[in-house]
Structure formats: C-alpha cells, structure tokens
Amino acid sequence: MSFDKAVQRTYPFFFGFVFVFGVITLSISGWLVSRYENLNNFESLAERDRVRYFLFVSAWTVLLTPIVMSLFTFARRSKASSVLVHLVFLFITWVIWIAGASALTQTTGGGMNCSTNTIFNYCGQLNALIAFGYINWILLTFIFAMCILLAVRSWKRGDGLLGSLIEIPIEEK
Ligand SMILES: *[C@@H]1O[C@H](CO)[C@@H](O)[C@H](O)[C@H]1NC(C)=O
C-alpha cells in the first residue's frame, strides 16, 4: 500500500476519533455549564469560565471536523481541502485544545482524587474533561505533524500549499 493510500484510509479514523472525543466533551461541558447557570454551584469564576471555554472548543471541533473531513473525502482537489486549509484548521484546533486542558488543570490542580476532593462539585466530570482534553490534544499533535509532512511533500512536487494532501485521484480506491 502506498503512503498516499495509507493516508487516505487512516484519515477518517483519526478525524473520527477527534470528532467523537469532541462529542463527549461537548456533552459533559454542556451539562456542566447548564448546571452552573441554574445552580450557581461553581467553585470560582475561573472554573465556570474555563468549563465554558471547553464547551466552545468542543463545539468548534464537532462542527468543523465533519466539514473538513467531507471536503477531503468528496472534494479532495478543491482548494477548500488543500494542505493550507488543513494546516490552519489543525493548528487552531491544536492550540485551543491544549489551552482548554491546561487551563482547567491549573484551576483544579489536575488529577483530583474524587474520594477526598471537597472543593469542587462534579469532580469526576472535571477530571473527565481534562483527560479527554489531553487525549484529543495528543491525537491532534500527531495529525498536525502528519499534515506538516504532507505539506512538505505537496511543496516538493510543485503543488505548493494549495495542493491536495495526497496525490492519488479521487476515483482510485
Ligand atoms: C484517593 O483517596 C482515597 C481516600 O483517602 C484513597 O484510599 C485512594 O487511594 C486515593 N486514590 C488515589 C488514586 O490516590
């Protein structure tokens, strides 16, 4: 199997996992935000705002990942699915995930023991957000690194940054 084909086949899995983790954190942070709004039972404004930020990061990911994926799948030759678009999307997404995960880690101290924690409500949910945040960030680090490699290839074959991630035509399976 050529490298191009390997990229074509594994792409949906990597982006699919980013999407699924985004759905999980979207539901957890959405639930927490609604709790905080109704019950005002957050420990600090920082905690509330950082959970809200998580909701934004999750929504960004859940909305945009399927669009980028579909463009790659159905319009690979289009500039809308070019190396440049992938680089920009992945870079922004990579930055906002690590920002969200590290900010919430800073607020809670990270890795809270929920059987001894007496400070934060929803200890398990906060720990889950942080864990999924880092998992998605690690996944995105790998995908972004792959994308840089593909950008270099596109550049070298003379397609520049507006070229496709891979060379093989759409029809070819
Ligand atoms: C969390 O605290 C409980 C009660 O002190 C303790 O038994 C347990 O080992 C702690 N768990 C971790 C992962 O530190």
From TrEMBL:
<feature type="domain" description="MARVEL">
    <location>
        <begin position="15"/>
        <end position="144"/>
    </location>
</feature>
<feature type="transmembrane region" description="Helical">
    <location>
        <begin position="53"/>
        <end position="75"/>
    </location>
</feature>
<feature type="transmembrane region" description="Helical">
    <location>
        <begin position="87"/>
        <end position="106"/>
    </location>
</feature>
<feature type="transmembrane region" description="Helical">
    <location>
        <begin position="126"/>
        <end position="152"/>
    </location>
</feature>
<dbReference type="InterPro" id="IPR008253">
    <property type="entry name" value="Marvel"/>
</dbReference>
<feature type="transmembrane region" description="Helical">
    <location>
        <begin position="12"/>
        <end position="33"/>
    </location>
</feature>
<protein>
    <recommendedName>
        <fullName>MARVEL domain-containing protein</fullName>
    </recommendedName>
</protein>
<keyword id="KW-0812">Transmembrane</keyword>
<dbReference type="GO" id="GO:0016020">
    <property type="term" value="C:membrane"/>
</dbReference>
<dbReference type="Pfam" id="PF01284">
    <property type="entry name" value="MARVEL"/>
</dbReference>
<keyword id="KW-0472">Membrane</keyword>
<keyword id="KW-1133">Transmembrane helix</keyword>
